[in-house]
Design brief:
single chain; alpha/beta; six-stranded mixed β-sheet; six-stranded parallel β-sheet; elongated; binds adenosine-5'-triphosphate
């Protein structure tokens, strides 16, 4: 006669078997429907069910194939005081109309992560079902008795301890079976405004961020599916480490990107040293780049010469420089980016040529512009003088220190030097490339062969409409008022002289005209009329209604953006993310104690402001699951003031701090002394990597990791080499060392030849 436990395991096995049978049936049905040509596209509720089945089938297939070692599709059971029982799993599965398995993200499954004896939510027993693939191997029960003294410290203690004891592999595993209450609250927080999740090392912030992405997809698939959620991590090493979590939860459609991969066509992995990162990351770069975008391309010609009616017309360097200034002024006044400025440039050049032509032989300005603008030699000059700008080319111009406007000489020299010997882009360049894309605008299509007629007509068809009232003076017609949306004047005052009295008189006249139109003028500023000539723009008491553009810009596709390690985002990185999150709610995850970027924020409100967002809900994770208390306490000695240390749940842990004479020998010895199995990393200051590489090369299975790239990662055994060098390497070196010391899951060894930061001295 099997014992009670064995019987219980057998009963759960029957449930697991039934779920898998049902999944197989659903899969067959979904395949059948796909063959019949029913797809996800059909509408109506029947089609909705089909769509759901297909999704469930896909999710389940993914879970099964991706993680043969997985804890299984069914992992939990809730028994309620009214006799009801649910099974909880990675996907929802129905048996006819009855739920067989409830998706962990469904509201009905929430008590699995929330019920405690203090607040049982109707649950009398929570069971974690522990499986290997499809075989149930063990059960872990919490019996929630309302009269129990105190609260449970953790949920599913046995399963949690088992999960924590497992050694680390090359990829992070999901925690769906053992999510803790405070983590669950953060995962299920509504997707409005900004949800800020802070917590010390190992409190599960990354896990929460990823499970939250899966949760949001479940609650509102229509809003978030098909790549509408973006998750941003600090490095490609990190995104690779966490890349398996969402697929193991059955979700593939989230965009997971490292900061260095946010711009299409660029994969940057190296970071600049702190001194350079502090310049590139600073908000000042916006002005530097804006200036750069208007500067002439290094290859721009400096003289235009063409023959008109037997005369040689020439625009030399000074005139061209003045023309460039005018193009810029006109475009900046109307918000036209450099890459859309070529028609304006053409008009200004043609005006300058016309002004230089012999008045006896030249036609009126419009006819002249039409004739000359059509010539290929003019089109060719124009494209060379005002070329289409590509962000990468423009950024490379920073190698020339004379082009850098907006930085002091020392910073400009540092910056120019990094581009001078640049072989590839750094992660810190990516926000600059992105900023340039926004500043330059889309490049105009480059015509092949002769300039097409449509473009020439565009240059020669005379006035365009303006978007506000303009008062301007013309040689033939005197003072004229233009109204928004129209290229022709709607009131003319006739020829008059143009002197300061005449301007004041004309403005008074124009104010009467506008008052008749129902607008009160409160002042005047400079602007341009539809011919591109300087004019006067009235400031109205009531703003003009803005017309909706016909072709509204395509909204940013992301509906939710999740930022991990957000404490380190520079102002320019925040701008890059804000452009992608314009229409998105956000989840911001981080730990100010681990801030290492020289421009990292000092507080969370500052970061939220950098991201251009306001409404914030803050959640804090207080319990650590990675670092054992002994190690956490040691690391906390160098924790920045004002930040609460983490209370660790992980038992055990070993800590050894050794002063040594020969680091290479000490590393070898420490590796040999480490327990077998599990992962082991040697963490060093970035500069020391080359020195220790030959030592580690002889030690199989050992990773040599520069401290600058270890953020977010973890290893069973960690050897930190020469902390003083890690601290000295950068302005926030102490925080970097704190990150390095908090990567260990089981054992931390600190090896040093130089003195340690004082507080780390004795153990
Ligand atoms: N509820 C949980 N059940 C099991 N393991 C957990 C749980 N929460 C966290 N962990 C484990 O603890 C470790 C740390 O989690 P995670 O990397 O998400 O923490 P973090 O707060 O992002 O850390 P850091 O700030 O150092 O990057 C991981 O191995 C994770 O799987």
């Amino acid at each position: 006669m099997p014992d009670a436990r064995t019987q219980e395991i057998a009963a759960e096995q029957r449930v697991v078997d039934r779920v898998h049978e049902r999944l197989a049936e659903m899969r067959a049905q979904a395949d059948e429907l796909a063959r019949e040509g029913h797809g996800r596209a059909a509408g109506g509720s029947a089609a909705g069910l089909v769509e759901r089945d297909v999704l469930v089938r896909n999710a389940a297939a993914q879970i099964a194939t991706l993680d043969a070692e997985s804890e299984g599709v069914v992992f939990g059971r809730l028994d309620f005081d009214d006799g009801d029982t649910y099974h909880v799993g990675r996907v929802g599965v129905r048996d006819g109309l009855d739920p067989l398995l409830i998706d962990w993200r469904a509201p009905a499954a929430a008590p699995f992560y929330r019920a405690t004896s203090g607040e049982p939510l109707g649950v009398v027993r929570r069971r974690v079902i522990i499986s290997r693939g499809q075989r149930v191997v063990d059960l872990d029960d919490d019996v929630l008795l309302p009269d129990d003294v105190g609260d449970l410290r953790v949920l599913g203690e046995g399963a949690l301890l088992a999960a924590l004891r497992r050694s680390r592999g090359p990829h992070m595993r999901d925690i769906v079976t053992t999510i803790q209450r405070e983590q669950d609250e953060a995962i299920r927080a509504p997707a409005r405004g900004v949800t800020l999740i802070s917590g010390g090392p190992g409190t599960g912030k990354t896990q929460v961020a990823l499970h939250r992405a899966a949760y949001l997809l479940y609650t509102d698939r229509g809003r978030f599916a098909d790549g509408r959620i973006l998750v941003v991590g600090p490095s490609t090493v990190f995104t690779n480490y966490i890349s398996r979590v969402l697929p193991s939860l059955g979700e593939e459609s989230v965009h997971l990107r490292a900061l260095g991969e946010l711009v299409d066509g660029v994969t940057a992995t190296r970071r600049d040293r702190a001194e350079v990162a502090a310049i590139k990351g600073s908000e000042r770069m916006r002005d530097v780049l804006a200036e750069l975008g208007w500067q002439p391309a290094p290859t721009a010609p400096t003289r235009l010469r063409l023959v008109y009616s037997g005369d040689v017309l020439t625009l030399d360097a000074d005139v061209l420089a003045e023309a460039r200034r005018r193009v810029r002024a006109r475009c900046e006044a109307t918000g036209t980016p450099p890459n859309s400025a070529r028609p304006v440039a053409a008009q200004i050049l043609l005006d300058a040529l016309w002004a230089g032509a012999d008045p006896r032989r030249r036609p009126d300005r419009e006819t002249f512009a039409g004739e000359v603008g059509e010539r290929n030699e003019f089109g060719g000059f124009l494209r060379a003088w005002w070329p289409a700008l590509i962000p990468a080319d423009v950024l490379s111009r920073l190698a020339d220190v004379d082009r850098i406007v907006g930085l002091d000489t020392a910073d400009a020299a540092v910056l120019a030097a990094t581009y001078g010997d640049r072989a590839d882009w750094s992660v810190d360049d990516v926000p600059l490339l992105d900023e340039l894309s926004a500043l330059l605008g889309d490049p105009p299509p480059e015509p092949k062969g002769p300039t097409p007629l449509w473009q020439l007509r565009e240059l020669s068809t005379g006035p365009r409409s303006v978007d506000t009232f303009v008062l301007s003076y013309g040689m033939h017609n005197g003072w004229e008022v233009y109204q928004p949306g129209h290229p022709t004047p709607f009131a003319s005052a006739g020829a008059q002289a143009i002197d300061s009295n005449a301007v004041a008189a004309a403005q008074r006249w124009a104010e009467f005209v506008l008052l008749r139109e129902g607008h009160k003028v409160v002042g005047w500023t400079d602007g341009f009329d539809p011919h591109g000539e300087e004019g006067y723009v009235p400031e109205l008491e009531e703003p003009l209604p803005v017309d909706e553009p016909d072709d509204a810009p395509t909204p940013d596709p992301y509906r939710h953006v999740i930022l991990d390690e957000a404490q380190d985002l520079s102002p320019m990185e925040c701008r890059m993310i804000a452009r992608r999150a314009e229409y998105a709610s956000m989840t911001v995850v981080g730990d100010l104690g681990q801030a290492t970027h020289p421009l990292a924020v000092g507080s969370w409100p500052e970061l939220v402001a950098r991201l251009g967002k306001r409404e914030v809900r803050t959640l804090e994770l207080l319990t650590g699951y990675r670092v054992p208390q002994t190690i956490a306490d040691y690391a906390a000695r160098i924790l920045a003031p004002g930040i609460a240390p983490t209370r660790s749940y992980r038992p055990g842990g070993t800590l050894s701090v050794r002063h040594v004479d020969d680091l290479a020998t000490a590393v070898r010895d420490a590796v040999r002394a480490a327990p077998d199995g599990g992962s082991l990393a040697v963490l060093v200051a970035d500069d020391a990597e080359a020195e220790l590489a030959p030592v580690v090369a002889d030690l199989p299975g050992v990773a040599l990791v520069p401290a600058a790239t270890v953020k977010g990662l973890e290893y069973d055994q960690v050897i930190v080499v020469e902390p003083a060098d890690i601290v000295e390497a950068e302005p926030r070196g102490l925080n970097r060392l704190y990150v390095a010391l908090t990567r260990a899951v089981e054992g931390l060894t600190v090896l040093h030849r130089k003195p340690l930061p004082a507080s780390l001295d004795d153990v």
